[in-house]
Amino acid sequence: MPTLSRTAGPLLACSLLAAAVAAQQGAATALGFVDLQAELERATGARAPTLTGLAVGPGGELFVTAPRRALGLPHRLLEFDAQGGFVAGYDAPATLDGSAVGLRDGCFERGAGRLYFAVDPAGSAAGNVVAFDLATRRFAPAANVTAHVATPSLRGLAWDGVAFWTASLASPLTAFDRTGVERSRFAPPADGVVGLAWDEDRGTLWVASLGGARSGGAQPGNGVHLLEWDPRTGVATGFMFRADHALPPGEAALPAGAEIHRVGGRLVISVIVQGLRTCGLVQCEVDALVGSGCGPSIDYTGGNAWIGNTDFALRAAGLAESDPAVFAAAPDATLTGPIPGLIGCSFLATIVAAFPVAVSPGGEARLAAPIALGTWPGAVAFQALQLATATARIRASPALYVAVLR
C-alpha cells in the first residue's frame, strides 16, 4: 500500500459492498450500518441502555457488550450472527457489579479460543480483562487477566497475536502480556480513544476515536473517527477517515468498540456506534487497494466517497513529469495482465473510461471527481496509468476500489 499524506483519507470504502463482493468473491455480503438495537428489540422486546464494545468470533459472530438496564441486574454480553441477527445473551460475572458500565471493548484470541473484554479496573474483583470461552459460551474467570498498566480505565482492547493493547481517551496506549505485565507504552494518536482493532495484514492498530484535537485530520470535530497507528514506531501512519456517512440519514453518532475481521474474503473494520436515535454497527472495507502496481501510487483526498461530497478527488503520485497519464475507470476491480513487453503488472480488465490528467512538478496528478446524487454508480474502480514514451511501456498503480455511500 502506498504512503498517504497525513491529511489524506485512507483507502477505505465504507458502504454496502454487495456488488463488489459478488463480482470478485462469488457471494454477496452487505456491509454498512447494522441496527443492532432494533434487532435486539425485535428479538427480545427491549433495547439495551447503550452498546459499548465488540469482539468478533472465528465464524463472524458479533459479541457486543451492554451495561445493565437497572441497578440489581447484571451487565450483559449479547451475541449476534454475522448478519446482525440476535442469537443469545449472557450475564456478565457478578464480580463486575461494582462497575457502572461493565464490559467494554473486546477482542478474539485465536490461540486460546477465547474472547477477552476490558472492564473498569475499579469495578472488578477478578481482573480488569475478562475471558469468555467460545467452546462453552461461558465466562472463564481462571483465564482473566489483571493488567498492570498506566491506563486508569480500560476502554479499547485488541490482541496482536502476542500481546494485548489498551487505551482510554487521552491516556497512554499500552501493551501488556497474558500475565498482565506492561510491555510497551506510547502516547495515543488521538485524545478520545474508545476502541482498538488489530490489522493482522499490515501489523497495525486502528483506533476508534471520538474526535478532538489530535484525531480530526482533514475532517475535525466529533464523529466516528478511525485512525491507523504503527506499534513499531509509536506514531500514527497518517491513514484516517470518518465513517459518519455510513450512518442512517440525519444520524449523528460517536464510536465505541472496534474489531477487524474477514467478511466475504474482505478485510473489514466493524465499529460500534452510539447515535441519537440508533445504536448499532458500522462496517467499512479496509483493503480497497487491489494488485501490487508497477510504478505510481493512487489514493483519494477530500474525505470518504459519499453522495454529495463535492471535494472528492483522485490523486496519483510517483509519475514521470514528461509522460502522459490518465485515470482509468472500471465498474469493478477485476484485474488482468501483466502483458510482456507492454506492462509488468496487473491492470483493470473492464475499463470503460479514461481521463487524461496533467502531471505536476514532483510527479503528482489529480482529478476532481465531485460526487452528485444519481451521477455515480454504486461502486467503481480506478487506476492511474502512464505511458513511458522512451520505452513504450505502461506504468500502472494498484487498482483503487471505491464504493459510494448512498
Question: What does this 3D model show about the protein?
Answer:
The protein has about 400 residues and is mainly β. About 5% of the residues lie in helices and about 40% in strands. Strands 21, 24, 27, 29, 30 and 31 form a six-stranded antiparallel sheet that branches. The protein has a four-stranded antiparallel sheet with strand order 1-20-19-18. It has helices at about 20-25, 35-45, and strands at about 35, 55, 60-65, 75-80, 85-90, 105-110, 115-120, 130-135, 140, 155-160, 165, 175, 180-185, 195-200, 205-210, 225-230, 235-240, 255-265, 265-275, 280-285, 290, 295-300, 315, 325-330, 335, 345-350, 355, 365-370, 380-390, 395, 400-405. It is elongated.
Topology summary:
Blueprint: H1 18-25, E1 33-34, H2 36-44, E2 53-56, E3 62-66, E4 76-80, E5 86-91, E6 103-109, E7 114-119, E8 129-133, E9 138-139, E10 156-159, E11 164-167, E12 173-176, E13 182-186, E14 193-199, E15 204-209, E16 225-230, E17 235-242, E18 253-263, E19 266-275, E20 279-285, E21 289-290, E22 297-301, E23 313-317, E24 325-330, E25 335-336, E26 347-348, E27 353-357, E28 365-368, E29 379-388, E30 393-396, E31 399-403
Antiparallel strand pairs: 1-20, 2-3, 3-4, 4-5, 6-7, 7-8, 8-9, 10-11, 11-12, 12-13, 14-15, 15-16, 16-17, 18-19, 19-20, 21-31, 22-23, 23-28, 24-27, 24-29, 25-26, 29-30, 29-31
Mean pLDDT: 83
- Rg, rounded, reads 22 Å
CA distance, first residue to last residue = 27 Å
* Number of helices, where a helix is a run of at least 4 consecutive DSSP H or I residues: 2
Per the principal axes of the C-alpha atoms, what is the gross shape?
elongated
List how many beta strands DSSP finds. Answer: 31
Q: Which structural class do the helices and strands define?
A: mainly beta
Largest sheet: 6 strands, antiparallel
Share of helix, binned:
under 10%
Low-pLDDT windows of residues? 1-30
